[in-house]
Structures are given as C-alpha cells and as structure tokens.
Specification:
This protein is α/β, with parallel strands linked by helices. The protein is 42% helix and 14% strand. It folds into 2 domains: 227 residues, TIM Barrel, CATH 3.20.20.60; 29 residues, no CATH class. Strand 4, helix 6 and strand 5 form a beta-alpha-beta unit.
C-alpha cells in the first residue's frame, strides 16, 4: 500500500528524514520504489532530461500524463506526485481540472510552483480533496523572469518573501514544500517556521528531506551543473561503453554466438 500525504506530513513530527527522487518511466519507478523511497516525483524536468528541451516550459499536460501513468503503474509503496506543467494552473478552475486528470491516471498528489501568486489555485485543489506539494525558491517555470537557474534570494527582503510564501503554503494546508536553490541558512529557517515537511534541492542539510533529479543523481551529463548534485553513479559512460561493445560485436560477427541462437 502506498504512503499517504498525511504519512509524509507526519514524518516531520517523528524527525524522520524524507527521501525523494524523480522518475519518468515504469522500470525506473519500480526500481526506485523497491529501494524504499518515500516520494517519487514525476517532474516536469522530464522535458530537459528525456525530451531534449532547453527548459521545462515546453512540457505539456499530455506529456506529463503519459509519464505519470507509466510511473503510477509501477509504484506500490512510495507516494506518487505529479508536477503540474507550465500554464496548467493559470486559474483555479483549470488547476483543479488538470489536477484531477493526474489523479485519474494514478498520481496521489500534485506539485505546483509559487506562493502567494498561486494561493487561489492551491486552495481550489485542496478543496477538491487532492493533496498539494508546494515549491518555493528557484522555480524553474519562472526561469525567464528570474534570469536563469541560479541561487535565489541572497538579498534579505527577497529571503523574507520566500519565507512568507512557504508559510502561506503551510497555512493553506500543503503536505510538503520543495525549496530549491537557496542559501542553507534560509533553508533551515524555513524548515523551522513551517509545520509541514520541507524537501531541499540545493537548500542545505537543515531541511526535513532531500529530492534530486534522477538523471543528475545517476551521473548523466546535462546543460545545467548545479553544485548541490551528488552523482551516486556514472551511468552515461557505462551505457556508451555497452553500446560500443555491442556495435563492435555485431560488426565483427561475434554477436550472436551459437549459444545465443536457436
């Protein structure tokens, strides 16, 4: 049975760290679920790591639903969260309709970016009894306004704005908040000033849990190289090596062998 949004929320009281990663397909989601992760996020980051977009902005609802459906089929234990893509929540009514689409294909909750500017959308989704994960700090869907992927809010008044957004989301009733690319002292401060758990991605060790993009964690190369990423594997050179060995063996007639033939 999958973890509930309430079970994730309660982990903060228990001082139990929350572990999350992104996933976009059935076999990967199955492996991550079997590894014991608490949350699997079907991130709109798929636009950059799978579809070749320069940003997450071109990602569509259709693309997100396709990948969410695949991930949801695989997961038995973790909470599945679907990222609401750019312009999929421009109004409360649209936000609810699209959130319901994610639930219909198997998501347990949805994530959307922003604080005060999406207050009505968050309220509407929660009123529709769909759990919401918030997202403050560096918000990739606002990359055109923020001037790129960079650490946010080193200026005191800007830091206060992020804190206030997080506190607002917390009061509205989100079950967790992703805080991205902010100074670690601000990450710790936000975590101590909200009731719900925080998931850091470039926000230091003082958050209630951590989340990373799967392909970053597995060592695939990317156009963006944030300092907070720790690569736990180097799969890209291993895949390239395997493909080259396969190419060599087919070209030279070494594959398939007699044992590999009927």
């Amino acid at each position: 049975m999958r973890l509930s949004a309430k079970a994730i929320f309660d982990k903060k009281k228990k001082r139990e760290k929350i572990v999350a990663l992104t996933a976009y397909d059935y076999p990967t989601a199955r492996i991550l679920d079997e590894a014991g992760l608490d949350i699997i996020l079907v991130g709109d980051s798929l636009g950059m790591v799978l579809l070749g977009y320069d940003t997450t902005l071109p990602v569509t609802m259709e693309e997100m639903l396709h990948h969410t459906k695949a991930v949801s089929r695989a997961v038995r234990r973790a909470l599945v969260v679907a990222d609401m893509p750019y312009r999929s929540y421009t109004s409360p009514r649209k936000a609810v309709a699209n959130a319901q689409c994610f639930v219909k294909v198997g998501a347990d909750a949805v994530k959307l970016e922003g604080g005060r500017r999406v207050q009505k959308q968050v309220e509407a989704i929660l009123a529709a009894r769909i759990p919401v994960m918030g997202h403050v700090g560096m918000t990739p869907q606002s990359v055109k306004q923020t001037g790129g992927y960079r650490v946010q809010r080193r200026v005191p008044q800007q830091a206060e704005a992020i804190l206030k957004d997080a506190q607002l989301l917390d009061r509205l009733g989100v079950f967790s908040i992703v805080i991205e690319c902010i100074p670690r002292d601000l990450g710790t401060r936000i975590t101590g000033n909200v009731q719900c758990p925080t998931l850091g991605i470039g926000a230091g060790a003082g958050t209630d849990g951590q989340i990373l993009v799967l392909h970053d964690m597995l060592g695939f190369s990317a156009s963006v190289h944030p300092r907070f990423v720790r690569a736990y594997a180097k799969l890209e050179p291993e895949i390239r090596k395997a493909a080259k060995n396969y190419y060599r063996d087919v070209k030279t007639g070494r594959y398939p062998s007699e044992a590999e033939s009927y």
